[in-house]
Queue: 2 jobs
Job 1
Amino acid sequence: MTHASMETSSRPARGAAPFLDVRGLTVQFPTDDGVASAVNGVDFSIERGSILGIVGESGSGKSVTSQALMGLLKGTSAKVGGQALFDGVDLVALSEAEMRRLRGQRIGMIFQDPLSALHPLYTVGRQIAEAYTVHHRATRAQARKAAVDMLGRVGIPNPEQRFDEYPHQFSGGMRQRAMIAMALICEPELLIADEPTTALDVTVQAQILDLMLELQAETQSALILITHDLGVVAEVCENVLVMYGGQCVEAGPVDEIFYRTQHPYTLGLLSSMPTLGGRQERLTPIPGQPPSLLDLPSGCLFSDRCPAASLVPDRRCRTERPLLVTEGGHSRRCHLPIDQLATLPASR
Amino acid sequence: MTRFILKRLASLVLLLAAVSFITFTLFQLGPSDPAAASCGQECTPERVAEARVALGMDKPFLVQYLQYLSGFFSARTIGAPGAESICVWPCLGKSFQTNENVTDIIARSLPYTLSIASGALVLWTVVGVGLGLVAAIKKGRLADKAIVAGASVGVSLPIPVTGLFLLIVFVNQFHLLPFTSNAVVVPWGPAGPGSWIVNYLLPWVALAVLFSASYIRVTRTSMIETFSEDFMRTARAKGLAPRTVVFRHGVRAGITPVVTMLGMDIGLLLGGAVLTEQIFSVPGLGFTAVRAAVAGDLPVTMAITMLAAFFVITANVVVDIAYAAIDPRVRLS
C-alpha cells in the first residue's frame, strides 16, 4: 500500500469514495536552474465535516499543494500531476474555465496575510460582495446585503458601516475575519486555510481559529488547515499530514501522530516545539537544511538530517526512497523499524 | 482635501515667483544686449542708449523686475518717455523684436502646442499602456520580447530622426499626408476635426514613438509586479474571470506609476515640444521660445519659461490629487 487512507469514524458507508481524495499529487516548477520538484507525490483524503491539518516547515510543499488543489497553478508554467478527486471530479484534469466555477463557490480559500491578500484600493465590503456576485445572480443591493450579513456572522461590529471601509482601516484580526467572510460567503463545501493565523497577534489567533471552527461546524464543510503550528493542529484537527520535501512523511489521526510518533522528522518537529508549563528543557532544533528542490537526494529526502539514517544497515536511507506504509490508520515513510525509534536521541 | 489643494496652490504661486526672478536674473547676467540688437546694422552709441531707455533697461535691475511683476495685476505703460504705449492687463511685457504684446504672442502659439501635445499624449498613452499590459500578460513569450525590443528601439530614436523619417516617407515619397499646415489650429476650426488630425498626425507619431517606449517599460514592470501580489491570487480564488482579474484588480493597482509619469510629461510637453515643433515647422510655444531666446527677446522668453514652469508645477498638483482619487490610503490619512 503506497498511500495513506485516513479513515475517520465520521466516514460514511465503507467503500464509498471520500469527499476529497488526493492521489500521487506532484507539482514541478521549471526554473532557470532546472526543474524544482515542490510536491513529490502526496496522498490524502478528507470527508465532509472533518478537519485535516497539514504541517511542515516552509518549503515543504504544503502551500503549493493547496494552490494546486485550488487550480491556482493552471495557466502558469507549473506542471501538476496525479489526481485530486473532489466529489468525484478530478481537479487536476479540469480546465481553467471549469475550475473557475468551483473556486469561491464550492472550494474556498483563506490566505495567510490578510493585508496583502485584500485589494488595497477597494472597500472590504465590495470585495466580499464581489465574491458573492461571481457565483450568484444578484443585484447590487442583494450582494451588499449578503456581504453585510456575512460580515456580521464573522463577528465584525457595525457591519453596515464597515462594509464601506478599506482594508487599511481594519485591524489585523478584523481583516482576517473579512477574509473568512469572503471565503465563506458562497458556503463552500471545501475550505482550505493556508496559515490563517500566522500573520496575526497571538491574542487574536485563538479568536480567529475559534471562528473558523464554529463556521466549519455550522456548514459541515471539509477543512484543510495548513500550518506550521503543531499546537493548533493538536487542538483542532482530527487528522494530520506531516510534509517534508514535498512528500507526506507521516499521517494519521492526531493522537496517533502526537503520542505514537513513528517518524524521526515528526519527532524532531515535536521536540523543537516549546511546551507551556512543561519541564524547563532546551528546545532541540533539527540540524541542517531541507533538501534542495532542484536536486533531490535519491534516497530518503530526510536522510541528510535524520538521526536514524546511521542506524539503518546498508546505507538504505541514502540509496532507496522509503515507501509510505500504512498500518492501523497510521502511515509513515521510513526505513527504520518502529521498535528502534526509541533509541533515537530526539525521541521523548 | 480642500486644505491640501489650497496649500499646493500657495506653493505654486511661490514657485512661480522664484522661477520668474531666476529667469530675470539669468537674462541680466547673460551676454546678450537686446538694445544693441534692436537698433540694427548702423548703430551709434547714442542710438543704443535711446533703445535702452525705450526698452526700460536703463533702470536698476530690481525696479525693472518689480515693473515686470506689476503687469500681472494691472495694465502698465511701456516705452521711452513721450513715446509710451499701453500694455493691457495681463501684461507680460512687449516683445523687444516686434513690440507686440507678449500675451498676444502666447495666445497665438499656445493652440499649436496644445494641438501637438493633446493628440500625442492620447496616442502614446493608449499605445504605451496597451502594449505594456500585453507584454506583462505574455511575460517571457514572443509577444513580450517583440514589444520590449520595439520599446528599446523607440526610446533610442531622437525626435529629429523619427520626424525626418516620417516626413520623407509619408510626405515626400508616398504623398500620403500633407506637410503640417499652420492654418489648421484647432479641431473645431472651419477645416473640421478630420483635417486637424491629418495635419498633426506626423508630429503625434514622432512624439508617440519616443514616449510610448518608456510607457511600455513602466507599465510592463509595474503590472508584472502587481500580478505577483497576493490580492491577485485572492481575486482568482474567488472564481473571477481572467479579464476581471487583470483589469479590475490588476490594472487598477498597477497604473499608479503611469499616472505619475503622465502628469510630468503633460506638464513638460505643454511648455512646448521644441524639437518636434522645429522639425514640423509648427509655430508653437517651443518654436517661439527658441526664436526669442536666440534674439535676446527677454519678455517673450520670460513668459514662455514661466508658462512652462506653471504647467509643470500644476501637473504636479494634479498628479497628487489624482493619487488621492486612486488610492484611499492617501485620501484617508
Job 2
Amino acid sequence: MNARTSQRRPDVHARASAWLLSHARSLVFSLGKLYRTPLSSLMTTAVIGIALALPTGMYLMLSNLEAISGGWDESAQVSLFLKPSVSDEQAEELARQIQRRDDVGSAQAIGKAAALAEFRELSGFGAALDALDGNPLPAVVVVQPGLALKDPLRIQQLVYDLEREPGVERAQLDLQWVQRLYAIMETAQRGVLVIGIMLGLAVLLVVGNTIRLDIQNRRDEIEVAKLIGATDAFIRRPFLYGGIWYGVIGGLLGLIMVEAALGFLAAPVNRLAGLYGGQYQLLDLGAGAAFSVLLIAMALGLGGSWLAVGRHLSDIEPR
Amino acid sequence: MILFQNVTKRYPTGQEALGQMNLEVDAGEMVFLTGHSGAGKSTLLKLIAMIERPTRGRMVVNGKNLHTLTRRRIPQFRRDIGIIFQDHHLLHDRSVFDNVALPLIIAGYRQQEIGRRVRAALDKVSLLHKEKAFPVTLSTGEQQRVGIARAVVNRPAILLADEPTGNLDPALSREIMGLFDEFNQVGTTVLVASHDLDLIAPMGKRMISLKGGRLQDDEPARGASA
C-alpha cells in the first residue's frame, strides 16, 4: 500500500511547483471572489480607501505647508539693540566678533544715524523725530542665524548668548511666529500620526470583520475541504489573499481620492499664491510615498485577515 | 488496513456511541456496516476518518497509529481516505468539474493532470457530460454520483460511505452499490454504512452489525455477488 501511495504522490520538485500553483490559484480565486460580489467589495474597499485617504491627505497638506514655510528660514533674524553708550565703531567691532560664531550666518551693524534714517523712512513718525533734540535710537546689530529655525533650542541658545554680549541692551528674535508655526506644525504632525494610526486600526478591523463574515459564509466549503485533506494553510490562503486584495484596492482608491482632492484644490491655491504675489505648485504625493501607502494598505489588509483567520478558522471542524 | 482494539467513544454529553469495539478490516476488503440509526455506524466511520477521536482504545488505519497522529498530519492522512456522505456535501457555487477537482487541487496536482483525473472519475460514474453543470441542476442520484467521483478522484486507499443510498430509490441504490463494488475490485478497501438490508444482503459481502454501540454480529463474505 505504501508503495502505491508514494508512487502516485508528486515528488519534491512537483510539490514546490504545486505550492506556487496553489498560491497563484488563491491569488486569482480571491480576486475573482471580489469581482463576483462587486457591490459589497466596492463598499468595503471604499471604506478602506477613505480611511487611508484621510491621513494621507493630511500628511500631504503638512508637507505643502512645510515646503511653503521652508523659505521663511532666511528671513529670520535677531536684532541686537545696543546700549545708548555704544558707539557706531564699537557696534561694527561687535558685529565682526559675532560673525565669527559657528551658529551665525552674518551680522551687520547699523549705526545710530542709519537707524534713524531707516526709522524715519519706514515708521512715518519723521515729524515727531524732528521735534526731538538728539537721536534717541541706539545702534543695532542685525544677526542672521546660521541654523534652521526648526531647531528652536539652539536658536534660543543663540539669542541668550547674544543678549549677554557686552554692550547689548536687548536681543529680539524676529519672526517668532515662524517658530510658533513650526511648533504648531509639529503638533499637527503628531496629530496626523495619531489619526493615521487610529484609521489604520480601523482598516485592520474592517478587513478583519469582512473576512470573518466571509469565513462564516463559506463554512460548508471549509468543512468539506478539511474532510478531503486540505491543510490549514491551504484553507487560510485564499482568505489571506482576499485581505491583501482589500488592502491594495482600498489603498489605490485612497490614492485616487487624494489625487482628486489635490486637483480640486489646485486652482484656488494658485489664486491664493497669486494674491501673495507668488506662484505655488501644490506638492504631489510622489511615487515613493504612494508606494508606501499601498504597502501599508497591503500590510493592514493582510494583518486584518490574519486576525480573522486565526480566530475563526480553527473553530470550524467537520462534524 | 483498519484495526480497532477496545475502542470506546463517549461524546461530551456522556452518551457512549461505541463501546469496547474490536474490529479488523483487511486491505482490499469490502465491508457493510449495518444497524439501526444510533447504533454507532456513523461514529465508527468518523473515527476512521479522524473526524472524531476515540475516548479510549487503539486504532490503526492505513498503517498509521491514530493515537500518535498529530493534528498537523491529519490532512495528509485524510487524502488517502475517500468519504461519501448521505447528503453528498457538494459545493453549490462550483461546477461538477470543480467539485470533483477539489481533492486534486488540495493535493497540488497540475492542471492537465487534474483535467485527466477528473474526467476519468466522472466517466466512471457516467457523468462526463455534466461536468460543466452546477450541482443544483442535477438529480439526487446524480449529485450522489458526483460525491462519489470526488471521493475516488484521488484514488484513496480507503473509501468510506455513510448511508450513501439513504435518499435514493432501489434501482439507483443498486447502481451506487455496484460502483462501490467496482472500486473494491481494483483494490480499494471499502466501508459502507447502510441500514438497507434488502439492498446489501444479496451482495454477499462481509456484514458487521452494530447495536447500541457494540459489535453484535460479524458475518463473513459469502463469495457470491449480486
